[in-house]
């Protein structure tokens, strides 16, 4: 029993200690000229859904939830956002080559069609990010039209 108490105390000390290890926050107040919404015109419903469902992981400005202050959750979120931005960054979309823009638009279509985005690990905590059938159809229609005009 004494060994269990020591292990629990050690785990508690480690848990408290890791709370002081900082993470890099993905926060910016900059207005990006190359932002996807600045280079393509779209209905307000599309832009609002993109912000709610995509921009937290795929832009330079994340709206962090309260639980981001707790380690190791903050490390997980930091890594997740870093990977998401590496794959697609809506704030930098206009800086992509035309070929890359077309490729990213095709990828977005595949992800939405396959119900792969937004990730369930994200929508579990952000129910407003879930795409219903009508929103999915509207987004697909927009990106299909965009794919042909880029």
How would you describe this structure to a colleague?
With 150 residues, this protein is mostly helical. The protein has one domain (25-149). It is 55% helix and 0% strand. It has helices at 2-18, 36-39, 44-53, 73-87, 98-113, 120-123, 133-149. Helix 5 (98-113) runs antiparallel to helix 7 (133-149). The longest helix has 17 residues, at 2-18. The chain starts with a helix and ends with a helix.
Give a nutshell description of this structure.
This protein has helices at residues 2-18, 36-39, 44-53, 73-87, 98-113, 120-123, 133-149. Helix content is 55%, strand content 0%.
Task: List the main descriptive attributes of the protein structure presented here.
mainly alpha; 150 residues
Largest sheet: none
Q: What is the N-to-C order of secondary-structure elements (H for helix, E for strand)?
A: HHHHHHH
State the helicity in percent bands. Answer: 55-70%
What is the mean pLDDT? Answer: 88
């Amino acid at each position: 029993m004494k060994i269990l108490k020591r292990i629990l105390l050690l785990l508690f000390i480690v848990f408290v200690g890791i709370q002081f290890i900082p993470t890099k926050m993905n926060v910016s107040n900059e207005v990006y000229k190359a932002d996807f919404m600045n280079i393509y015109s779209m209905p307000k419903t599309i832009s609002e859904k993109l912000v709610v469902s995509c921009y937290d992981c795929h832009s330079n400005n994340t709206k962090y939830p309260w639980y981001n202050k707790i380690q190791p959750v903050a490390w997980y979120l930091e890594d997740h956002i870093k990977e998401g931005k590496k794959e697609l960054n809506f704030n930098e979309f206009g800086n992509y080559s035309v070929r890359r823009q077309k490729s990213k638009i095709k990828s977005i279509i595949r992800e939405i069609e396959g119900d792969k985005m937004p990730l369930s690990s994200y929508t579990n905590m952000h129910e407003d990010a879930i795409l219903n059938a009508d929103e999915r159809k509207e987004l697909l229609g927009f990106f299909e039209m965009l794919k042909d005009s880029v």
